Amino acid sequence: MEATNAPAASAVSAAPAAAAAETAPAPTGTANGTVPTGYQQLLELKSTGRLVESYPEIERLLSGLPEADLLAAGQLLRGLDAEEVAARHPQVPTVSLAVTGHGTLAALVPALAAQLARHGMAARIRPADFDSYVYDLSDPGSAVYAARADLTLCVLDPEVVFDEVPVPWQVGDVEQVFARKLRLMDTLAGTFTAVGRGTLVLNTLPLPRRYAAQLVDHASRAALGAVWREGNARLLRLAETFPALVVLDLDPMVAGGVAVSEARTDAYAKAHLSPELLAEYARQIGHLARNVAGRTKKCLAVDLDNTLWGGTLGDDGLSGIEVAETYRGEAFRAFQRVVKQLGSQGVLLAALSKNDSAPVREVFRDHPAMTLREDDFVRISANWQPKHENLERLAGELNLDVGSFVFADDSAYECGLVRRELPRVGVVRLDEEPAYHVEKLLRDGWFDTPRLTAEDRLRAVRYADELERKDFLASFDSIADYLRELDIRVRLGTVEAGEVPRVSQLTQRTNQFNMTTRRLQPADVQSLVDDPSALVLAIHSGDRFGENGLVGVILGRWRDGVLDLENFLLSCRVFSRGIEKACLAAVLRYARERGATAVHGSYRPSAKNGTVEDFYPRHGFVRCPDQAPPESGDAAASCRYYRHDLAEIIAVPDHVHLTANL
Amino acid sequence: MLTIDDLLGVLRDQLGLPVTADHADRALDEIPGWDSLHLLWLITTLETRTGRRIAMADFLEASTLSEIHDVATR
To answer: So what's the ipTM on this one?
Structure first.
């Protein structure tokens, strides 16, 4: 397509056109007394030099901003010093990103800054030199490796291949170059695995029309398509070989209508990927970063009327709501299917509705066309309380941080209220067109995780069991009676090969009972398992209501006859039942049997682990202020060390049946 | 119509850069907070605002805000 008036037609300006419409009032918007938008408030903070000071506010300011304003916000946030933010606001998680790649990535840095800020994190971004990815990832001494980043982004574009294809070219030339690049990627991922830290992110190469269309015969064009996709498929499969690797598939983003590149910036600035595509890429990185920071969302709370079904149950009744078969009914059915699909992968589902409880339960139980049923949900909360209060109560019942919830509702009022009262809840604002519900819900990868474990698929059942336990608890006079009746079984043993991904995941998802909040990638766990001086123990538990699965981890290290507990963590589903005490008792006994002179434990305060700050002193450990830190760096500064002399060891609680296999 | 003041306003209001009329004829790298990576963003922003296509190759060669303004309004 030739554009006569480029700005209107060009890919680059398509989205900012919307920006102009939405941000145009920015300079004057406050003059006439209107409430300033989040963007305007952000601009005010930037102009008055208060971005660092007000950083914890920014998550709220960015919440619900239109796409274009979010990109504009990135321009204001780029260059913000993450160290200053961290120093001023220790509760704000910092995620470090090293950015390298093939072309100019000017638009990526602000997009990343905006995405991380939107999730309440600060981004420490280290961009590498232009087109330096081969050097950056092959030389263990490069600045990219020196950055020790949580996420190393290596952004690839189609020119990685076409730069080296001769002119004129045939499909075989493309095939050869792509094969060479795949060997290179394999080598780079191998080097990263050996010497890098954290996660390496690669991406597939979109095939621009300007190459396919150069071939005039359909047979060759089809062959190019096949060769190209085979190359991308092999790139995607590299992640099966390298656990520290994530390969983002850009094809679905391009299929969603985002242009691959813009001809002029491609030609003049070697920016081979469009700002819109880089913004989509950054959106996905935002969710990977949430994961690194232990902020993955865990629960989806959905409204009912006009969200899961069409119509108002209170007015229209069970037979009047639209759940299937009508035009709108089919759209709601499609949405229910997607919600069910998320639920099958470990996302806890809850329903939050301003309705009477009985008719709602009747719909889930008796409506013949409903896709979702009562047992798909951990809780169905139908009452007339404000929704933010229901969310907080549910978080309490599930022992989850309310920040791990995503809330989807078609009402602007309810969405606005939840945003205001609970800014850390992810809010998905649906509207009166149910056909858009699915894409709005999936617009953000709220529940993205690098790998799913067997535990994830059982999570909903386990949490539902947990709520049953709570109801069961309510029928007892004392917690001690309750615990005896619960028949708790605990198995403590060394981590087996198949458990490595789950152990890694627990270190990343667990925030409350996490003594030192050290997040470990699967590769980090594996190297501990392989290390003879390290002790890596898994805690499994179960009770009369069912199996809890692998719920906890103890990480220790032998140093000069002392067993040093570097971390101890337990899923929030199962703590305060004596499981932690039983396991600690077993480890102390084990250390004494092995001839240890003492066991040391560390506690590193975080924003969320205050409940376990006295865990060690409560169980016979004594604070040792002069103890040399077994780790180095900033992290050690705030660490507290405790020592147990192994003279008197706590007993395993009577109500816990412990099997220790150390 | 994009005046030089409009251009300065864009830099102030959308990048938060403290620019004044004095900066119009100074080299871009003398502008506090300026980054050459801002150029690509600025082209897009100005094209959207003026609804006209800007000659990007000339724009990238501009060395002052006045020159940028000339290219953008040509």
So the answer is: 0.88
